[in-house]
Design a protein that fits this description.
single chain, mainly alpha, two-stranded antiparallel sheet, 3% strand, Oxopyrrolidines_Biosynth-assoc, OpdG
């Protein structure tokens, strides 16, 4: 069952429109707001209709502005959907239906891509969103940021787990920050335990398989995918040792965690147990 109405209208007022971008934004917003913002049940046919609408108004000749607007809107909407609300899965399904559509070839930033198969700029927009980490300063504003950070990680994890995207870097960054670095406050510990658990729950098989393969990372990625200060001496990227450390850290953090974080950690540990069986 879907939750209550979610009001996304503030996005219209806050968005920085590209030239001539407002009309396309309003059309995209209308499609997504009707499908995701309402409390009605969300069917596969309804999600297909949204994907069709997105495809129909896409700009193949000058795709950058359209794609940046589309991905920004999807990400900003995902941040406002509470954890476990089925509408986040509807958002994922819309991207899945886009990905399998027959794609035109478009040029973005000097490189040719398949419009929906490759989903150009989605990773770049998500990378910008990844700058919105909480401060853990107990301010009212930070409470909103924390809630949105949890939802963003859940959305990104679901996209990885469903093979819409292959951005394992976002998983590594969040798992490193939350499990491989010391955390001072209980609020930070609980938040990171929840986000780590979302990655394991929704993309655990991808992460586990990557760890078992243990493919060395390229020279350009050694620093960005390195381990945290609590896991010194391990190579950058995925490894079985890193996976084992995450498992032990989730178990450790769950002992003193709040109710929600503990519940999600238990679910993640069940996934880990199943994967390792």
């Amino acid at each position: 069952m879907s939750g209550s109405l979610i009001d996304f209208r503030s996005l219209v007022d806050s968005y920085d429109f590209a030239p001539d971008g407002r009309e396309k934004f309003n059309t995209l917003f209308g499609l997504l707001d009707k499908a995701i913002g309402s409390s009605a049940s969300h069917t596969s046919d309804a999600n297909e209709a949204v994907a069709n609408g997105i495809d129909e108004i896409s700009n193949r000749d000058e795709p950058e502005g359209y794609l940046w607007t589309l991905w920004t809107l999807l990400i900003e909407i995902s941040k406002r959907i509470p954890l476990d609300d089925p509408r986040v899965q509807s958002l994922v399904e819309i991207t899945q239906k886009l990905k399998v559509k027959k794609s035109a070839t478009v040029e973005v930033w000097g490189t040719k891509f398949s419009l929906w198969t490759d989903m150009p700029l989605f990773g770049a927009v998500m990378r910008e969103a990844w700058n919105g980490t909480p401060n853990y300063d107990n301010s009212p504003e930070d409470a909103t940021t924390i809630a949105q950070w949890k939802s963003l990680n859940s959305f990104a994890a679901r996209l990885l787990g469903s093979s819409v995207e292959s951005w394992t870097n976002f998983a590594l960054w969040e798992l490193r920050d939350g499990l491989e670095e010391p955390l001072e406050s209980q609020q930070a510990k609980d938040t990171h335990l929840i986000t780590a658990s979302e990655w394991i729950t929704h993309a655990g098989k991808v992460l586990y398989d990557e760890g078992r393969k243990g493919v060395p990372v390229g020279e350009d990625d050694v620093q960005s995918l390195s381990t945290g200060s609590l896991l010194k001496g391990e190579a950058s990227g995925f490894s079985e040792a890193r996976w084992d450390f995450w498992k032990k850290k989730i178990q450790e953090l769950s002992v003193g965690a709040g109710a929600e974080a503990k519940k999600r950690a238990e679910k993640a540990l069940e996934v880990i147990k199943s994967l390792e069986a």
